[in-house]
Sequence to fold (295 residues):
Amino acid sequence: MKKLKKEEINPEVFDLYDDYAHNKLDRRQFVEKLSLYAIGGITVPTLLSSVLPNYADSILVKQDDPRLKSEYIIYDSPKGGGEIRGLLSFPNDTKTKLPGIVVVHENRGLNPYIEDVGRRAAVEGFISIAPDALWPLGGYPGNDDDGRTMQRQRDRNEMLEDFIAAFNYLKNHKNCNGKIGVVGFCFGGWISNMMAVRLPELKAAVPFYGGQPSEGETAQIKASLMLQYAALDERVNAGWPAYEEALKANNVDYQAFIYPDVKHGFHNNSTPRFDKKAAALAWERTISFFKEKLK
Fold:
C-alpha cells in the first residue's frame, strides 16, 4: 500500500495521532476522525498505514550488528514489577569499563524503535539497558495498540521503580564504570526527569518531550539535565516555564533545546512525525552530553 509523504498529510492528522497515541481517542474514534481527511483520492487505510509506526523499515542498528553484543537479560525490581526483562547492549571490543545509559520507552512498552535506540547508544561506546515495563504482564505484545492498553494496567510509580532498578543493575555490571545517565521519550521523558529527582547518583538525564517534576521534586535534582522539546508540542510544553523557573531557583545544571516546527515524537523515525534534521541534531547533542558527563 502506498505511504504518503509527510508533506502530503494534513498537519491536523498528526494531532489526531498524538491524541490516539496518548489514549485520548480509542482506535474506533481515531479511524472515524481520520475519515474526515480521506479526500482527493486519499483513503483511510492509506492514512492509517502512513501515520502508524513502520518498524520494519526504520531500524538503524540491527539486533545482530557485529559491532555489538546485544541480548535480553532479566533483573530484579523488588519495589516494582518483581522481575523485568531488558535489552542489554555494549560494544564487542570492550577493553575498559564503559559509562552506562538507561533507555526508557514510551507509553507502549519496549518496541523495536526503543530497542534500536538502546543499540544506537551502545554503538557510541556505552553499555545500555532498555527495560520493558510490560514484562510483568507478559512483555511488549508486538504491536503498540495492545502495548498502550497493557501499560495502562500498571502504576506509573511502580514502573519508575523498575527503571531505578535498571540503574542499579547497570551500576553493578562488570562492564560498567558506575557513571550512568538516562534518556527517555514521552512517558520515558517523565521517567528520566523523575530518576533525576530520585537518584542523587545519577550523573545525567536527557528527557525527550517528557512531563516535568513538581517544584519541590526539582529541588532534589543533582544530575545534569539536557531537555529536548518539540516546538509544536503544546501539551508537554505547557509545563516547561514553571520547570525552568524551578531549575534556575535550585541551581540545577541544565540546558534546554526547543526544536522549531516539529511535533511531539520527532525523534521516532518509525512514524511521519519524525523530523530527520531535528532528530539527528538532538541525538548528536545527547551523545556528546553523555560523553562529557559520564567520562
Summary: Residues 63 and 70 are 7 Å apart (CA to CA). The mean pLDDT is 96. The chain has two domains: 6-51, 68-293.
